[in-house]
Task: inverse folding
């Protein structure tokens, strides 16, 4: 039932709160435009018959984690899917549409500020809420992150693009239409490449190229806040926040690859500073188009449906509004299995829109073809074409930050780093790139601290990566702490590693130093080494030999295993024992190994 | 006469002519008189100093409601003033009130209003005549002395047609010269703020006050383009003898004999003044009306989607999602029949199954109509690159076109009741082409010097002058010549 608020006191107080943000107004008046303050004459609430269920994001994350735990038990069944006879008969095809909130200061068509956590309805201009007589003012600055994204995704930037209206009625859409780019989008025909380390399905190894049909700019909608049982409060701060919609071609054939594609697009958008937040913060949303076809018929290009040059496709369904990578993967699996089941039972797939609830195992029908909205696309008569000059593109291309793949390749190929692809990729993807920044800081400081002859050694890069990822990472995992760059400052780690690399402390000492710093020792590394007397006093060759001899004599069975059975790995057991038995902080593992090998006559 | 005296006469007329229903909201006697009195004491105001200007009720004012004659906005007051309203204030004008119209500008007789139809006064005992539409309220207010001038909006003839029917001057400037910020959109690629006045001289005064670039209107003509246009106009060698084009396609069978005679008289008069009459062909004219009635409703269906009662406006009782379709109750109750008809028409022509056959085709016709005009005018269209596409030899080209504003005299309101909606659309046949091309056009009253046998019907006739884009002043100058005939 409708319940218009008639509580005079509270509603009159509400009426005085500014509807248009004062800061936004100042921006306007500075430009010589004067927007008066809009105030509400009464509080309006919106009622719909059925309140759609919205799951809070934290709950969603919990649900996903719970589901994952439950699933992880019968892992064997998951492994077996590769040999599923149904999947040998049926081929899955997936195309993805990704909506990403652009990182801009202003809305798409007004000078109101963008915001994410401000008080509701504090950043709203007249046009944003479709006041009669108001008109759009395209904010040119919003083009920059959009263009960076399109360049990073290898698109052809269109010199001229236009805006169209997409019509449908919903309370979060004030004008009754969304302004988007339907007929002439600003970017077309791009692609991205997914590699093994991106988490694609093994059958796509070593890499797969996914085409991008187009990228368009468009407006976001308002936020609806549920007030059970039937009231919806509307927050127009988000309305007209600039979005880009990225539409991939149906080049994806595996659920894991679909998830990897979304993850990679998020990572690329983040690296070029095009978006505000990732999927986990609601900055990215995905719709997936799913179809299956019989493999032996897939080559018959004349049969079936086609999409932008991709032919012979099965009837697709669209699953809307997926808000995590896991949801993308799970929804694709569920919809693939549903379609196969329907087809094998002799049924027909209807072109329809479906939904996915977290934690479920099935997609559900939202509306059928008969319920599809005809969006009645129309060029917006108020908005002229957007024309992008070659000089701007040139500038953006030259100043584009390095993409994740390029960074990883540099870390592998540059002898100053010399990392494995696995470590490089891990550094690039961890903690939104913060771990990489930390690593680069450590390497740079190490190079400054080291004597000249060691500065260009690839040892620096490798050792630093090992300590940033594995030693420090291990401490974080044990303590159950999230990453911050302050737990152990990059200066502290660089200082520890400088001592280690110059053989001023042993590896064991270095680990201890890292651990004490991690758990809150505020002394500088230098101080700790001095106060605890940790500086390496190198042992003489004779001392090493004595230490080794003692162990060899006492453990003849181990010697036998090495010499007669060829268990050469046991050499390291002796090294470990020497480090443990020797004087604290004096035994260097490398030299110990050297001595043991010589004495046992085992080559490295 | 003092401004106070002038205002008092207008207010007296407003009271005496209340039954004509020209106004939806009046500024109120005391307010107006106070301002007029103040205007008398400080003489050096702007060009509209102390003048009473009525404003069509689809133009936003913050001190009076803006209803657009719709039930859905019957109690709506805009939080801001339209740019043209600010310009009137700035020029010293006094807003007299908000005038009645066809709901959202959709109509040709000002009878589709939530606040009741506008009528124009007629001889004692005779039938009530159509005031024309959709700016009928503005036209009647000026024609009956309820204000000095009025603003209207012209999408397909909504300023020129009522001006013709009520015997005053109606001027639609080139699209993009006058700001639309604060003007409720009907079909925004066509909507133009226009002027209704007693004389072409007044039209020039008001035009100068409201013409100008506005960065809040994204379709406002840029200062650089304006400069380019006035540069090219100043270079034109202006002969005292003009070449007046007569579009042959406008001589249609439906043209009433009185109107045809007025047209020929006007042309004769101009020829006697030393100008040359040149027959020209505008072959796309026949398709222009159909194209207009595809494009305008399409844009209307989009522009009116915002009226859902959620953020402003009148809202139906009960849940918004009643009957399964969101906002259908609010929109069903809030809009009148003609608005619903055009929204449906527009929604259909934009639908996936129809857009290629209707909306896209109509856009092509619109382009052809523009090309027709560019071919006959001696002045190149300043908005086109090079501007010379397809134009005839200069010796065949014309400076302006002169034709009737409407095919008939104003019909009686009674006769309109028998008309189908499509028949009503025919009254826009001569005004729509200039709208599609965005050209300046003036309707000026013309009294035929003699009356034919057996033509008992009476009423005003408007002659329309159409000029090339940006050549607004020439259109007004030629209209002024035709205006002279009233004094002879």
Result:
């Amino acid at each position: 039932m409708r319940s218009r608020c008639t509580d005079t006191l509270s509603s009159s107080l509400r009426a005085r709160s500014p509807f248009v943000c004062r800061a936004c107004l100042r921006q306007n008046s500075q430009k010589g435009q004067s927007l008066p303050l809009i105030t509400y004459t009464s509080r309006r609430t919106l009622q719909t018959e059925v309140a759609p269920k919205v799951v809070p994001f934290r709950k969603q994350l919990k649900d996903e984690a719970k589901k994952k735990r439950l699933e992880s038990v019968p892992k064997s069944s998951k492994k077996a899917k590769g040999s599923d006879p149904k999947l040998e008969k049926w081929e899955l095809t997936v195309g993805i549409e990704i909506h990403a909130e652009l990182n801009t200061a202003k809305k798409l068509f007004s000078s109101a500020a963008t915001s994410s956590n401000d008080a509701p309805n504090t950043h709203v201009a007249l046009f944003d809420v479709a006041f009669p007589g108001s008109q759009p003012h395209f904010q040119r600055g919003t083009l920059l992150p959009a263009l960076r994204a399109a360049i990073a995704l290898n698109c052809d930037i269109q010199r001229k693009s236009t805006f169209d209206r997409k019509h449908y009625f919903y309370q979060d859409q004030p004008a009754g239409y969304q302004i988007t780019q339907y007929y002439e989008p600003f970017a077309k025909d791009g692609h991205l490449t997914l590699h093994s380390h991106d988490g694609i399905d093994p059958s796509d190894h070593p890499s797969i190229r996914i085409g991008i049909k187009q990228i368009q700019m468009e407006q976001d909608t308002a936020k609806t806040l549920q007030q059970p049982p039937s009231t919806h409060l509307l927050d127009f701060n988000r309305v007209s926040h600039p979005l880009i919609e990225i539409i991939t071609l149906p080049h994806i054939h595996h659920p894991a690859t679909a998830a990897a594609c979304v993850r990679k697009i998020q990572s690329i958008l983040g690296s070029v500073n095009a978006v505000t937040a990732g999927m986990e913060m609601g900055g990215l949303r995905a719709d997936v188009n799913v179809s299956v076809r019989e493999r032996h018929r897939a080559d018959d290009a004349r049969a079936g449906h086609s999409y932008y040059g991709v032919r012979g496709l099965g009837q697709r369904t669209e699953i809307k509004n997926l808000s995590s990578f896991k949801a993308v993967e799970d929804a694709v699996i569920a919809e693939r299995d549903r379609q196969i089941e329907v087809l094998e039972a002799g049924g027909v797939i209807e072109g329809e829109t479906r939904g996915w609830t977290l934690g479920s195992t099935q997609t559900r029908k939202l509306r059928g073809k008969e319920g599809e909205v005809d969006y009645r696309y129309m060029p917006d008569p108020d908005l002229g074409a957007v024309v992008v000059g070659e000089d701007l593109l040139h500038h953006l291309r030259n100043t584009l930050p390095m993409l994740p793949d390029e960074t990883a390749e540099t870390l592998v190929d540059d002898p100053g780093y010399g990392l494995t692809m696995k470590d490089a990729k891990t550094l690039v993807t961890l903690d939104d790139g913060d771990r990489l920044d930390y690593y680069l800081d450590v390497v740079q400081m190490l190079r400054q601290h080291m004597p000249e002859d060691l500065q260009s050694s690839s040892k620096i890069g490798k050792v630093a990566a090992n300590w940033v990822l594995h030693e420090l990472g291990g401490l974080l995992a044990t303590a159950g702490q999230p990453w911050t760059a302050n737990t152990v400052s990059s200066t502290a780690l660089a200082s520890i590693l400088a001592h280690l690399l110059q053989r001023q402390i042993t590896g064991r000492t270095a680990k201890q130093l890292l651990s004490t710093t991690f758990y809150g020792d505020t002394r500088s590394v230098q101080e700790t080494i001095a106060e605890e007397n940790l500086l390496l006093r190198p042992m003489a060759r004779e001392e090493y030999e004595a230490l080794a001899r003692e162990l060899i004599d006492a453990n003849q069975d181990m010697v036998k295993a090495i010499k007669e059975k060829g268990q050469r790995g046991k050499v390291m057991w002796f090294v470990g024992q020497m480090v443990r038995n020797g004087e604290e902080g004096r035994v260097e593992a490398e030299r110990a190994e050297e001595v043991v090998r010589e004495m046992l006559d085992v080559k490295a | 006469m003092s401004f106070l005296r002038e205002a008092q006469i207008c207010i007296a007329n407003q009271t005496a002519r209340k039954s004509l229903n020209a106004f939806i909201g009046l500024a109120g006697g005391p307010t107006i008189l106070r301002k007029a009195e103040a205007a008398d004491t400080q003489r050096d105001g702007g060009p509209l100093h102390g003048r009473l200007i009525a404003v069509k009720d689809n133009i936003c004012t913050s001190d009076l409601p803006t209803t657009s004659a719709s039930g859905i906005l019957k109690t709506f007051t805009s939080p801001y003033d339209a740019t043209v309203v600010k310009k009137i204030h700035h020029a010293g004008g006094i807003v007299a009130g908000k005038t009645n119209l066809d709901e959202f500008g959709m109509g040709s007789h000002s009878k589709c209003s939530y606040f009741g139809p506008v009528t124009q006064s007629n001889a004692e005992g005779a039938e009530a005549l159509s005031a024309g539409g959709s700016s009928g309220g503005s036209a009647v207010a000026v024609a009956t002395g309820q204000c000095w001038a009025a603003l209207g909006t012209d999408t397909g003839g909504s300023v020129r047609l009522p001006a013709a029917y009520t015997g005053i001057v109606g001027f639609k400037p080139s699209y993009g010269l006058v700001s639309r910020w604060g003007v409720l959109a009907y079909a925004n690629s066509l909507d133009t703020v226009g002027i209704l006045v007693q004389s072409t001289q007044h039209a020039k005064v008001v035009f100068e006050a409201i013409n100008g670039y506005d960065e809040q209107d994204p379709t406002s003509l840029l200062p650089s383009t304006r400069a380019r246009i006035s540069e090219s106009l100043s270079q034109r060698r202006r002969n005292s003898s003009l070449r007046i084009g007569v579009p042959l396609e406008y001589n249609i069978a439906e043209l009433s004999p009185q109107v045809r005679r007025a047209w020929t008289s006007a042309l004769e008069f101009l020829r006697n003044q030393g100008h040359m009459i040149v027959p020209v062909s505008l072959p796309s004219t026949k398709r222009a009306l159909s194209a207009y009635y595809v494009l305008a409703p399409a844009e209307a269906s989009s522009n009116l989607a915002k009226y859902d009662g959620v953020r402003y406006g009148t809202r139906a009782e009960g849940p918004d999602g009643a009957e399964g379709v969101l906002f259908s109750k609010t929109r069903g109750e809030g809009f009148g029949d003609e608005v619903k008809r055009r929204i449906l028409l527009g929604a259909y022509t934009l639908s996936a199954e129809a857009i290629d056959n209707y909306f896209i085709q109509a856009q092509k016709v619109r382009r052809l109509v523009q090309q027709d005009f560019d071919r006959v005018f001696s002045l190149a269209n300043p908005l086109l690159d090079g501007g010379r596409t397809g134009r005839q030899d200069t010796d065949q080209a014309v400076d302006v076109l002169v034709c009737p504003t409407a095919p008939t005299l104003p019909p009686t309101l009674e006769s309109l009741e028998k008309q189908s909606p499509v028949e009503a659309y025919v009254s826009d046949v001569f005004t729509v082409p200039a709208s599609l091309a965005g050209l300046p056009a003036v309707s000026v009253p013309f009294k035929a010097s003699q009356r034919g046998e057996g033509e008992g019907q009476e009423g005003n006739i408007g002659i329309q002058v159409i000029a090339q884009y940006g050549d607004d002043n020439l259109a007004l100058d030629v209209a002024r010549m035709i205006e002279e005939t009233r004094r002879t």
Chain B has 16 helices and eleven strands.
